[in-house]
Amino acid sequence: MITIHVLNGPNLNLLGRREPQIYGSATLSDVERLVREKAESLGASVVFRQSNHEGQLVDWIQEAGAQEAGIVINAGAYTHTSIALRDAISGSGAPTVEIHLSNVHAREGFRHRSLIAPVSVGVICGFGPLSYLLGLEAVHRVMVERARQAVPSKH
Ligand code: DQA
């Protein structure tokens, strides 16, 4: 079974209360519920986690890689600063989709740069909680396709 780790970075534990005009009113538990429903419809298993600590996120990325799981990551502000997360993603070999609730490109200039985008399969931003569901579907499709290509053809 395909397993996808959905990892959340700093301040996302405050979702629903934190700058609702930017991030909306859904809490992280609401997002988790939607993600679990979507994973069930895809027939995938999901691990959903949040940490405010960079090293903890590095450990979880390594864990997902070791388990041959996929990753959907909202790295929060670490997206724009963390070489450690970038190295963890590229070193893990886990197919990774970077996501954001807000459209980071419509915001301050420092949010336009992502250190993890170049080592991710793709980036989804600006759709609120739907970004998580689109990210889940995207990484799931990538993993199904990779598994299909890994099976030697009969012809
Ligand atoms: C965010 C965007 C980041 O720039 C910000 O630091 C966050 C949340 C988003 O989901 O829109 O913490 O990742």
Q: Top keywords for this entry?
A:
155 residues; alpha/beta; Rossmann fold; five-stranded parallel sheet; 5 strands; 41% helix; binds 1,3,4-trihydroxy-5-OXO-cyclohexanecarboxylic acid
CATH class: Alpha Beta
Return the string of H and E elements. EHHEHEHEEH
Gyration radius (Cα, Å) is: 15 Å
Give the helix proportion (percent range).
40-55%
The overall pLDDT, averaged over residues, is: 96
Q: For the report, how would you describe the main beta sheet?
A: 5 strands, parallel
Instruction: Give the strand line-up of the largest sheet.
Output: 2-1-3-4-5
Beta-strand fraction estimate? 15-25%
Structure description:
This protein is of the alpha/beta class and 155 residues long. The protein has one domain: Dehydroquinase, class II (Rossmann fold, 3-Layer(aba) Sandwich). It has five helices and five strands, in the order βααβαβαββα. Strands 2-1-3-4-5 form a five-stranded parallel sheet, with helices on both faces. Helix 4 (83-92) links the parallel strand 3 (70-74) and strand 4 (96-100). Helix 2 packs parallel to helix 5 and helix 3 (54-66) packs parallel to helix 4 (83-92). The longest helix has 21 residues, at 130-150. The structure holds 1,3,4-trihydroxy-5-OXO-cyclohexanecarboxylic acid.
